[in-house]
Amino acid sequence: MNASATAEKNVGPEFPTPATAAARRFARPVVPVAPAPREGFLEFWPLLVAVARRWRLVTAAAVAGAVVGLLWGRQIWTTGYTAVAQIIRYETPDPQLFQPRQIAAPTLASMIDSVEVHARVGAASAPPLSADAIAARLRITPERNSDILNVALTGRDVTETVALANRYAAAAVAFTQQLQAQEAGAASRYLEQQLTKVESEIAALNEKFRGLPPAALTTAVLPRPTQVLARLDEARDQLAELLARYTDAHPLVQEQRAKIAVLEHEVAGFAASKSGGAADAPATENPPGSGDLEVLRDVSKALEGQRLQLAGRLRLTKMLQQAPPGYYRMFAPASAEHAVVNQPAAKIGFLAVVLGLAFAAGASGIVLGVEVFDRRLKTAADVRRVTRLPVLATLGRIDRMGPAAQSHWAFRTWTTLQNRLSDSPNQGLVCGITSSGPGEGRSVWVRLLAEAAAQCGFRVLTISTRPSPGGKSPDGDMAELFPAAAPAGEADSAALATNVLSSPAEIARQLINPDGPPHVHIPLPGWVWNLKRRNEWLAALQHWRTIDNVVILVELPPASSTESVLLAQNLPNLVWLVDGTRAEAPETCVQLETLRDARCNVVGAVMNRDETPFSLARFARWMPDVAAVLLLATLLAAAPSGWAQPVETKPPAAAPAPETPAATPLPSAPELSPAASAAPAAMTVVSPAQRAEWQKQLTVGPGDVLRVSLYGDPTLLQPALTVQPDGRLSFLEARDVPVAGLTVDGVRGKLDEELAKYRRAPRSMVAPVEFHSKKYYMLGKVARKGVFTLERPITIVEAVARAKGFETGLSGRNVVELADFSRSFLIRHGRRAPVDFEKLFASGDLSQNIPVEPDDYFYFPPADVQEVYLLGELRAPGPVTYTPNLTAARAVASRGGLNPKAWWRKVLVVRGSLKNPQTFTVNLVDVLSAKGPDLALRPGDIVYVSARPWLRAEELLDDVATAFAQSVVVFWTTDKVIPVVR
User: Fold this and answer.
1) Integer Cα distance of 188 and 610 in angstroms
2) Start-to-end Cα distance in the chain
3) Alpha carbon of 159 to those of 155, 323, 337, 519, 601: distances in Å?
């Protein structure tokens, strides 16, 4: 919609009178005013300012909270003392005879800090204390890298606290002695059982000795098989250990079973030989029972030694049970000199600060709640948000401004309105001012603006209107608050007020008269507004507007009255006035909507009683920096994972190409598939969310190197196991296990399954070291062709960088890339992936930079040399290598420019096929003088520069002029020079 249509729309309702035609004829186009941008963070600033203005309330609440915290803390915490007694770990002097079970220091500390010990110490105190009271005052902490335990107790009396700490340390030592005595008693009972069993075996062996014949006791003995039996027992023990780790199928188990079988066969052969010899020999040489006698002797000696050892350990265990030393002994008892005084000042102060902040936060919340639910428009941001109008100017407390300050403010505000609402700074304007209700200062604004306009040399006509009921000014209270002298000429204009609409020429004569007053004021009383009155008003207004350099300021009634809407329909500019202490948002919205429905041209808003906060007035130059710092802190706090989160960046916008007159639009590129649209939009893969499915479930293939070990046995570590070409892996007893296509967890499970056939509960540990099975292929015009290993997530740009970039060559004097991006392609899973390499590498569109996947095939075909051909009147016609920024003027300049015969204004460009060519003309004179656009060329374009069409006439005229000059010179020489020479 153009400006004239906007002005016609904003004029009031049409009437079938000549005044309507005059209104249309003299209606000035409305200058659109762009709405002010949103202020972002500063929109929340009024809430902070509201809290700052009520700092006394917030401070009083904080002080009250601090006082409550102090009183409460004094009741909760009092001055106390902490006494520390130290006990140290104690070991048994001779661990070979009896070694109690080893208990960790934290476990012992927990056992000492038990309810049983609490009850003992509490019962021994005077007065007695409960176990819970002791636990509340006790803290047991082991010292780092030491065997010392600190027993700390707190109390209000230093003497009582020290005695209680020492009593608890002694009770802890006694508790460990009792615990050790119980363990020694259990060991004594076990040793007694073992000793009884050994003695019974010795008694049975003695009975066997008595049953042997007397001759067996005096004869020589045969070789004893004790060594073979010992080896057999040792082999059986080793077999038991192997069966605890391996199954029967393990080679070590089978080998040990064979060894045991050999030993058993040897023992059996020895027994058979011994029994056979006894049958053949005479009774005098081998008496019966001589072999058994030797065995019984060996067994008797072993049992006797075992009995003596058990008897000695039992005796020492009984002694330890009667006088146990305990696991701890006293190291440093507590003393009053070393007791720590616990001052509660820090706790009380912290509680006071916390409660003070809580009370201050509560008071701030109340202030914010009142501010949020306040319906008044108190700031310029409120006015912009509610009215959806730009704030043209603001006025503070005028009663606090001197005459000079008022004059300066009026001049600045008038300059702003003049530049916003008028076509020229030296041209007058017509503007009306209205507000939501009475008493908002419309007359003050009109008076100050009129004085400023008069100072700028304009003739000013101010019109103050009143609503119909009553004749009292609605702004009477405002006029009393801001008294002002009547403008010059008001006495004269008051006489014309009764007949001003019927005879507007009288007012026009006063405005035109050079000796007349610069400011004419017309007070219009309340009327019964009918159609005739509105026509008179419109005709008078249009009559006054025809006067040059006149400023008409109309003080309208409040927008709640009907007259205000009817008068505003005929004004080309209407300004909405808001009083920061009176105007409310609901009424303002309703009244502005009524004015918009009546097609009133509300061009902006101004604000009265706008108080600039102290912070903005004193620190205005720092506010943008403060806002930037707060915004940065908010962004950093919103990113819990730090800088690892990906930052999505838009691809850089391509440089705008030169305008092409009547050029055919290029075909648009096809849309990307969802896989391509989920591209990382970055140079590399920086987040797991950007990875493909194959990267999330990484599988093992031939050539990959794994680090394999067995849990609990570091000696079996294999730091570099390579997956065989057939996809199999061998480790320990698991031979040729197929692992190709499995994940690392799958490889681990497969190895465990195979090893379970030979080992008890095997648990393998598999970690990838190098990946060689994932590959991609780069062919075409790249510097380094071949197969590349995909050992980590990379993108297309990184893949090309690994291939050392694209091949380059010389075309003319320019270095160009030999790859044709328009015909390059990527084959993935047997299909062509929708990647636009021309956008990626020529335009920098990172949305095309998708991650590379295994078995991807890249091909960059060679590019034909792209040229543009220049013919005609040039200094050096010929081809020019095409570059993306080549234009007609640049192409002509690269060939040495045009010769003197060329026609600069009509350079012809031929584009397209032979059947359907397109032609363009370029005016190089306009291009060089920056008055016309240049033409962007394409590969294959023909640029033809013709000679000037009047060149032949110029040559003829040149020849004629030359011949004429020669004739004149000849005749003049013949007539003047030759006679003198003669």
Assistant:
1) 96
2) 87
3) 9, 32, 10, 97, 90
For residue 107, the surrounding DSSP H or E stretch is helix 105-112
Over residues 460-483, the mean pLDDT reads 52
Give, in degrees to the nearest 5, the angle at Cα 760 between 758 and 763. Answer: 95
Measured CA to CA in angstroms, residue 959 lies from 580, 884, 947 at distances of 86, 46, 18
> What are the backbone dihedrals phi and psi of residue 310, each rounded to the nearest 5 degrees, phi first?
-65, -40
Give the residue-averaged pLDDT of 554-560. Answer: 86
pLDDT band at 682 (very low <50, low <70, confident <90, very high): low
Grouping H, G, I as helix, E, B as strand and the rest as coil, residue 551 is strand
Reported as a single tens digit per residue, the pLDDT across 406-420 is 888 888 888 888 887
- How many CA atoms does the CB half-sphere of 588 hold within 13 Å? 26
DSSP 839-876: HHHHS--GGG-PBP-TT-EEEEPBPPPPEEEEEESBSS
Cβ neighbour number for residue 116 with a 10 Å cutoff: 13
d(CA 439, CA 769) in angstroms, rounded, equals: 83
Q: What is the DSSP letter of 555?
A: E
Please name the amino acid found at residue 112: I
Instruction: Please state, in angstroms and rounded to a whole number, the distance separating the CA atoms of residues 167 and 308.
Output: 43
| CA proximity to 160, closest of 108, 125, 199 | 125
pLDDT one-digit tens code per residue, 685-705: 656 666 666 766 778 888 888
Q: Which two tokens stand for residue 971?
A: 């005749």
> CA angle 811-817-819, nearest 5°?
120
- Please list, in sequence order, all residues whose beta carbon lies within 8 angstroms of the beta carbon of residue 287, skipping any fewer than 6 positions away: 213, 215, 216, 219
Looking at the predicted structure, is the pLDDT value of residue 683 above 80? no
Range from 341-350, 443-452, 943-952 carrying the lowest mean pLDDT: 943-952
Rounded Cα distance between 751 and 769, Å, is 17
Burial (CB < 10 A; 0-12, 13-18, 19+), residue 495, is exposed
Q: Evaluate if residue 401 carries a pLDDT over 80.
A: yes
Query: Using alpha carbons only, what angle is made at residue 355 by residues 352 and 359, rounded to the nearest 5 degrees?
Result: 135
72 Cβ contact partners less than 8 Å away, ≥ 6 residues apart: 351, 355
Q: How far apart are CA 684 and CA 769, in angstroms?
A: 22
Tell me the C-alpha distance between 894 and 909, whole Å. Answer: 16
Res 889 pLDDT > 60: yes
Q: Is 449 helix (H, G, I), strand (E, B) or coil?
A: helix
Helix ranges, 619-667 (H): 623-637
pLDDT above 50 (res 132): yes
Residue range 190-202: average pLDDT?
86
- C-alpha distance from residue 489 to each of 456, 515, 522, 799 (Å): 18, 12, 10, 85
Question: Residue 263 and residue 270: Cα distance in Å, rounded?
Answer: 11
- Confidence at 225, pLDDT banded by 50, 70, 90: low
What average pLDDT is seen over the chain?
Answer: 75
Distances from the Cα of 920 to the Cα of 891, 905, 950, angstroms = 15, 12, 22
Q: How far is CA 92 from CA 191, 317, 839, in A?
A: 18, 11, 82
Contact 366, 108 (CB under 8 A): no
CA–CA separation, 823 and 831 (whole Å):
15
The three state secondary structure string of 145-179 is CCCEEEEEEEECCHHHHHHHHHHHHHHHHHHHHHH
Q: What is the structure's pLDDT at 64?
A: 92
- Give the H or E element holding residue 139: strand 138-142
Which secondary-structure segment (H or E) carries 575? strand 574-579
Closest CA to 481 of 434, 447, 440, 525: 440
Q: Are 705 and 773 in contact (CB under 8 A)?
A: no
| Measured distance CA(809)–CA(227) in Å, rounded | 90
